[in-house]
Design the sequence.
């Protein structure tokens, strides 16, 4: 090979090498840009993409090591389904579908689910199955829904007709349980039973309102023990001793969601709207100047109390949806906007790649059990506070979606 040919060959190799490196850099930059979550997106999508980034499989939320049927994950997946309805982006529906496929086999059997545990929490994740069944027509989803409905047929009740929270908590109704069971029950009876169970669904709200309402504040206590045998129960009324924001938030979300399915001419519909207005009026009184609400709703900045994310998100959702549906007056839309602004400013943190995190989420709270939970003020403020706990993820997306309407 002569010198000129050799120079041309080496030059060509250099060009090819340069193009290879350039292409690699472009691909790397493209890949990097794919991993960046744009701040131009709505908050609902920014949160959803952040969740997916941390947990490529939905069951990995909360750093779970294996999949499980779980009310918190069900709530998160329901928010992804709602986000899909708004954006039509299939990645959100596929994410929720992936969770369902990991927990329900082809026979319709639900992973780690035992009907005779009679745990009302286990009903909640069933809400995601309606849309999945509609879109896929896979029998597994219908069978799973029928199983959950069967639980409600035989679920133990208080003497006055309210569902126990769990078999291990006899004669107890918790505010949480209204959200876990009632919206699924309402949608199921609307779709499959011609609405025959709406009187029974309304009965659940009537019982919890009658037995947990505090006339002084207008707030609802976290739980009620009909037997008055639990150590946390007031010996005269059976109520637990404190107001927990997330439990009230569960109740308010339950009201707004059940009303989606209750016929407009049903005689109990007006009563549920009245309940929503009454609790909204009480909750609004305790909104902090930041727009947020405290862990123990009525205790303000008492030592140890803190502005809690999940309860604040649930109140924002209920206020915004209540206004959007015409159940609540305009002042609640304004309160919802103040609340969401407070969440973003005070509780959201941002990474350099656009990933967002929700802080100050109460990890869990309940009553009784082992170790024993006494429902005291000290108990509620002493439970773990976490970042990106699943209780704070789904309600954030749902609240954002309502405010984007």
Sequence:
């Amino acid at each position: 090979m002569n010198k000129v040919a050799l120079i041309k060959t080496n030059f060509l190799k250099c060009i090819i090498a340069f193009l290879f490196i350039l292409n690699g850099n472009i691909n790397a930059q493209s890949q990097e840009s794919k991993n960046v979550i744009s701040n131009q997106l709505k908050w609902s999508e920014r949160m959803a993409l952040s969740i997916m980034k941390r947990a490529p499989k939905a069951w990995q939320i909360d750093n779970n090591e294996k999949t499980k049927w779980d009310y918190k994950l069900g709530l998160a997946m329901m928010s992804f389904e709602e986000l899909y309805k708004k954006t039509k982006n299939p990645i959100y529906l596929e994410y929720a579908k992936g969770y369902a496929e990991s927990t329900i086999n082809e026979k319709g059997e639900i992973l780690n689910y035992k009907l005779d545990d009679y745990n009302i929490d286990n009903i909640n994740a069933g809400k995601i199955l309606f849309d999945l069944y509609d879109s896929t027509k896979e029998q597994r989803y219908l069978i799973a829904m029928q199983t959950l409905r069967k639980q409600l047929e035989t679920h133990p009740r208080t003497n006055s007709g309210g569902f126990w929270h769990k078999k291990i908590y006899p004669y107890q109704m918790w505010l949480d349980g209204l959200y876990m069971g009632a919206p699924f029950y309402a949608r199921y009876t609307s779709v499959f039973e011609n609405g025959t169970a709406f009187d029974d669904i309304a009965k659940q709200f009537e019982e919890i309102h009658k037995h947990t309402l505090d006339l002084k504040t207008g707030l609802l206590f976290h739980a009620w023990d009909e037997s008055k045998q639990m150590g946390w129960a007031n010996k005269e009324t059976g109520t637990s001793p404190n107001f927990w924001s997330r439990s009230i938030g569960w109740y308010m979300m339950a009201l707004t969601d059940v009303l989606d399915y209750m016929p407009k001419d049903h005689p109990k519909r007006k009563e549920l709207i009245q309940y929503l207005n009454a609790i909204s009026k009480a909750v609004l009184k305790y909104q902090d100047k930041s727009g947020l609400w405290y862990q123990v709703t009525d205790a303000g900045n008492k030592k140890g109390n803190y502005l809690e994310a999940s309860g604040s998100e649930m109140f924002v959702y209920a206020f915004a949806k209540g206004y959007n549906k015409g159940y609540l007056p305009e002042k609640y839309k304004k309160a919802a906007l103040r609340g969401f602004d407070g969440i973003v400013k005070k509780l959201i943190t941002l990474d350099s790649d656009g990933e967002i995190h929700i802080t100050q989420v109460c990890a869990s709270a309940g009553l009784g059990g082992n170790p024993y939970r006494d429902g005291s003020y000290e108990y509620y403020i002493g439970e773990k506070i976490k970042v990106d706990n699943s209780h704070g993820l789904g309600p954030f997306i749902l609240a954002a979606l309502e405010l984007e309407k």
